[in-house]
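user: can you give me the structure for this one chain? tokens are fine.
assistant: on it. calling the predictor now.
[tool input]
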Amino acid sequence: MHIPEIAVIDANTLSCLGLQNLLSEIIPQAIIRTFHSFRDLTDDTPDMYAHYFVSAQIFFEHTAFFRQRLTQTIVLAGSDSLPRLAGVKTLNICQDENGLARSILQLHRHGHQGGHPGSEVMSVENLGADMHDLSVREIEVLCLVARGFINKEIAERLHISLTTVISHRKNITEKLGIKSVSGLTIYAVMHGYVEADQI
């Protein structure tokens, strides 16, 4: 099985760590390495990465390197105001957590429409037989959490008590080992429970 390796190149430590955490949730089988400068990347083995998430400043300072790897490069932008460059994918890192997760999922899906190398595609028939053994009701709750509903709204939609919703969410968190809403959203999308455009 091929294990994809991803490089995150940004002088901002918080951006590196945050992106590394999100990418780990989206592509759990990937190895994600962070570099605080282009020099750190070149001191490593720079041609071994499936993707380069790179700050705009580093991208523009080392355009020749990244232009040769354009299909693998995603430029980290501080807003949507970064000028559109032909063939360059960008990621607005100043979004809220759910927006950022959605953007990464869309980039991932666009870049790997046939599936990520080495990953198994989960069929609809296998959704209920997930290795974490979520119950049908827990899957319903997970889908509503991923779609942005709060506990009270979930209780109303599923005609169950608020206490029951909280209990289901606790069980989901324990079974999956995921505590954040963005992490649960990523899990739900990556396992086919909800579409990225529904979140």
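assistant: here you go. The mean pLDDT is 80. The beta strands are 5-9, 31-35, 51-55, 73-77, 89-92.
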